[in-house]
């Protein structure tokens, strides 16, 4: 009878541990690992090479902010209905931050321990991890780089759920962010399209070190990574603060998605917007839904004024842009023309070349005999 009870206890604790090790933790979505597995019951031999080795106490390594937190866990081998004991190996956290009331609110799975729920241990660890993250943010408020974190949270680029902070004794503060990309402009399947950004800030200068980037598998499948890293090379030095850096990373990632994955309307929108970057103060109108056309009021150095109309085909950039110039001084028919254009050019280069070509067309139009209206 005693052996049957012991076997039942072993199976209960094994089930709790197995479910814990199946779960993905943190932003990185990595699994926890255990080591130094032991048993508090007499007569149970240590055999870690066996997959079913029974251990009621072990060290748990949990992924967090690109590092690993090592927590010691002790389960009750004689009565699994008793909640587990934890040694979180962080005296400041356990002695100065955690209170009974705090635990009761933040870690309800520990206070309402149900050993027959195989997710019970996993739930406790998840809740403790969230409490630890909250503690780290509170500690960060006393450091110079809290402003960086606060600005990033207020930017709308990242949420608190997608951010992890770790203040290390080495004098560095590590931030790990998950930046989800808006894929509505691309023809892709549903998936996790995100970039994980890890940054270290030194104390007390709050200077940002070179970031480490990791794309999710779904994003890697649709991104020109070589192009992205070329664009990203100077992003850190170009950025004014953390929020600005994250904004630049997202923009450069979105503009590095493989060209054939971009929706046709998005390709046209980007081209029109690039024109607006150069001639936005001269725009008369543009198609803000399908981005098929736009008109601009242009003048040259001699005060000659004309209207430029840009037209894009549905299959742009396979079909190059079409341009037309009309003088405001007469009612002559408008002649359409094309400018040098190659699909391999980025939008900025294509628009710059187009405007240079159009300057010559304006000069020819100015020198053309005018029939005054």
TrEMBL record:
Please provide the record's free-text comment about the domains of this protein: Contains 2 ubiquitin-conjugating enzyme family-like (UEV-like) regions. These regions lack the critical Cys residues required for ubiquitination but retain the ability to bind ubiquitin.
Keywords of the record, alphabetical order, are: Apoptosis, Cell cycle, Cell division, Chromatin regulator, Cytoplasm, DNA damage, DNA repair, Mitosis, Nucleus, Repeat, Ubl conjugation pathway
From the Swiss-Prot or TrEMBL record, what is one GO molecular function term?
A: polyubiquitin modification-dependent protein binding
**Where does the protein end up?**
Cytoplasm; Nucleus
Q: Which residues form the signal peptide?
A: none
Q: Which InterPro entries match?
A: BRE
Query: Partners and quaternary state?
Result: Component of the ARISC complex. Component of the BRCA1-A complex. Component of the BRISC complex. Binds polyubiquitin.
Query: Does Nucleus count among this protein's keywords?
Result: yes
Protein name, UniProt field: BRISC and BRCA1-A complex member 2
Q: What is its main location?
A: cytoplasm
Any one biological process term the GO annotation gives: mitotic G2 DNA damage checkpoint signaling
């Amino acid at each position: 009878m005693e052996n049957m009870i012991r076997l039942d206890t072993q199976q209960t604790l094994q089930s709790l541990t197995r479910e814990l090790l199946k779960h993905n933790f943190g932003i990185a979505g990595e699994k926890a690992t255990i080591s130094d597995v032991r048993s508090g019951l007499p007569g149970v031999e240590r055999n870690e090479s066996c997959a079913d080795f029974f251990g009621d106490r072990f060290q748990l390594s949990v992924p967090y902010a690109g590092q690993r937190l090592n927590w010691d866990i002790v389960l009750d081998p004689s009565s699994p209905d008793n909640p587990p004991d934890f040694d979180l190996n962080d005296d400041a956290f356990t002695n100065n931050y955690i209170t009974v009331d705090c635990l009761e609110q933040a870690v309800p799975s520990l206070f309402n321990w149900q050993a027959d729920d195989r997710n019970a241990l996993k739930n406790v660890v998840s809740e403790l991890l969230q409490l630890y993250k909250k503690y780290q943010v509170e500690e960060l408020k006393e450091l110079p780089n809290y402003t960086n974190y606060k600005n990033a949270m207020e930017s709308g680029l990242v949420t608190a759920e997608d951010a992890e902070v770790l203040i290390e004794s080495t004098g560095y503060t590590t931030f790990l962010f998950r930046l989800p990309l808006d894929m509505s402009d691309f023809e892709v399947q549903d998936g996790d399209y995100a970039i994980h950004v890890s940054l270290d800030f030194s104390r007390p200068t709050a200077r940002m070190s070179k970031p480490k980037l990791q794309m999710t598998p779904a994003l890697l499948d649709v991104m020109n990574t070589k192009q992205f890293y070329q664009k990203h090379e100077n992003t850190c030095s170009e950025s004014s603060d953390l929020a600005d850096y994250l904004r630049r990373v997202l923009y450069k990632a979105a503009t590095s998605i493989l060209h054939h994955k971009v929706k046709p309307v998005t390709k046209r929108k980007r081209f029109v917007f690039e024109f607006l970057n150069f001639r936005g103060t001269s725009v008369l109108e543009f198609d803000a839904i399908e981005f098929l056309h736009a008109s601009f009021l242009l003048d040259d150095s001699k005060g000659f004024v004309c209207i430029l109309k840009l037209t894009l085909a549905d299959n742009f950039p396979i079909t190059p842009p079409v341009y037309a110039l009309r003088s405001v001084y007469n009612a002559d028919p408008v002649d359409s023309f094309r400018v040098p254009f190659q699909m391999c050019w980025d939008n900025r280069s294509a628009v710059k070349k187009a405007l240079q070509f159009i300057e010559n067309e304006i000069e020819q139009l100015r020198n053309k005999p005018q029939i005054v209206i």
